[in-house]
Amino acid sequence: MYVHVVSRQSKVERSIMVAKMAASIAERGEDAFRKVFKFYKRRKPPPDFSEVIDFSKKSANELVFAAELDHDSLGEEAAYRAGLRPVKDWRAFGLQGYPGFMFISNPFLPGSQQYWVKQCLKTYPQKPNVCNLDMHMPPTETVDIWGKSIDSFQKKGTRDPKTLLEKLRWVTLGYHYNWDTKTYSAEQRSPFPADLHALSRSITAVCGFPGFAAEAGILNYYRSDSSLGIHVDEAELDHTWPLLSFSFGQTAVFLLGGTKRQDPPTAMFTRSGDVMVMSGPSRLLYHAVPCLVSAPTAQPLPLCLGPPPADRAPADGLVQAVTEGDWEVCSRYLLTSRVNMTIRQVLGPGQTFEAAHSGAAGHAKFRRGYDDERSAEATPNSKKSRSGAGHQLH
Ligand code: OGA
Ligand code: MN
């Protein structure tokens, strides 16, 4: 009898426990990531940023630790030529619970961020690279986006309502990511910019990935009200190589989640010059950018976006000086914008699209992530893309 009662009680207890677990799973299943995303995307009232990890602060968070770097893979001279500080001066961090994730707090030398910003605004949007405006406009109109936009940036006071530069949302480099099929292909490809390849190769080598080949790039242009939806970058055929991400201009909140949509994400600030590396177990984690921090008023640009010091020897390397005229346009643009470059290696050594698609490598899917919300829309107001989700750049 006694035994019987106990066993009945334990059954009840067990069923309560199961119910509680189900409730908590349901709560998680109700998409913890989306909840956090919405929390930071909210405008009125503005969200509380006190829980956001700030790697630029000395003691950022108890989950943050110093990451190990391969100092020998990039000599001081080579770093200088690439516009980077000596590796011994880099502030690189890992995050507990996210093996393979690395955050490098602005490794750029003063003055060299200007070059990459200019490349993103003036050079990389040019043909044969592909941009969102190409989806809606004839090629004659998307030629010379920079030239067609700068007058408005140079004029004080009244501005055109929207220049092409302000309508730019993404540019693809190398293997051009196809937003509809969520794949890369051998056919849709143009040469990857040599300067960006060299920069990416140097940084990934320091992070323990010598031999990285930058084969595809997605550049994201965030206006003050933009966000990038929750997604995983999985279109690349080889996931053993890291994903490299650069931030320029206004500060954003970056959310790094788990392998499931239900896993709650960790929020961190990403500031001008910061570099993130997603590798190993962190390569295929959900992530998103819910907001820029500066929105909606213009913020003064951080000092790290200033010109190189006058006594700096002219670099005979990668990074060239940006003219004052060009920087005037770039800096005005950046007052309310953020530019992000994400660099990917698509294929493993000796891998081809044909072999991978034939299923030999066991790649059942080549999707960037079903919840990728990047659209081909040219107007920032449009909420939906042609494929039913709005690139972020909502
Ligand atoms: C991406 C991406 C993040 C960012 O382009 O895939 O995740 O910081 N970008 O803008
Ligand atoms: Mn991504």
How is this structure best described in words?
The protein is of the alpha+beta class and 394 residues long. The protein has one domain: Sandwich (Jelly Rolls), CATH 2.60.120.590. 25% of the residues lie in helices and 17% in strands. It has helices at residues 2-29, 32-41, 76-81, 112-123, 145-154, 164-167, 194-206, 324-334, 353-357, and strands at 64-66, 91-95, 101-105, 130-131, 170-174, 216-223, 228-231, 243-249, 252-256, 266-270, 275-278, 287-292, 337-344. A hairpin with a 5-residue loop joins strand 2 (91-95) and strand 3. The longest helix is centred in the first third of the chain and has 28 residues, at 2-29. Residues 1-9 and 360-392 have low confidence and may be disordered.
Number of domains: 1
Listed once per kind, the bound small molecules are: N-oxalylglycine, manganese (II) ion
Average of per-residue pLDDT values: 85
Number of beta strands? 13
Rg for CA atoms? 23 Å
Please state the structural category. alpha+beta
Query: What's the end-to-end separation, in Å?
Result: 65 Å
Gross geometry: globular
Largest sheet: 9 strands, antiparallel
Topology as a string of helices (H) and strands (E): HHEHEEHEHHEHEEEEEEEHEH
In the CATH hierarchy, what is the architecture at level 2?
Sandwich
Low-confidence stretches: 1-9, 360-392
Question: Regarding CATH, which class?
Answer: Mainly Beta
Strand portion, in percent? Answer: 15-25%
Q: For this structure, what is the CATH homologous superfamily?
A: Alpha-ketoglutarate-dependent dioxygenase AlkB-like
CATH topology: Jelly Rolls
- Helix amount: 25-40%
Per DSSP, the total helix count is: 9
Strands of the biggest beta sheet: in what spatial order? 1-2-3-11-8-13-6-5-4
Main location: nucleus
Protein name: Nucleic acid dioxygenase ALKBH1
Cofactor: Fe(2+)
Domain Alpha-ketoglutarate-dependent dioxygenase AlkB-like: 101-344
